[in-house]
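Deliverable D5.2: sample structural annotation.
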Amino acid sequence: MNIIPTPDDSISLRGLQAAVDEWITTIGVRYFSPLTNMAILAEETGEVARIMARAYGDQSFKEGESPDALADELADLLWVLTAIANQTGVDLTEAFRRNVEKKTARDSLRHSSNPKLKF
């Protein structure tokens, strides 16, 4: 497996999990503990929130901050989320499939009949 996908590569969730695992175990040496990864997840979520507040909310960017950083921060968030899934035995493909099924069963009429969502 090529650890670094090319720009033309499409990657599945299972492929993502395998790539993160390979990178962590070959280049990163080992996984951080789940608690450390949870702290990193919270930190990266904060970074995404900061950029979103500036790019799409009412805050403005400070000097030296880049509005282009959102993609990198989302990738960091996806990375640590994937690492947590790997080390806790979660198959993201199956978890996502089940989650979409749950949302579909629960919300099939809820959103379409919500007057707040009408245009």
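Annotation notes: The longest helix spans residues 34-55. The mean pLDDT is 91.
The annotation will be released with the project's public dataset once the embargo ends.
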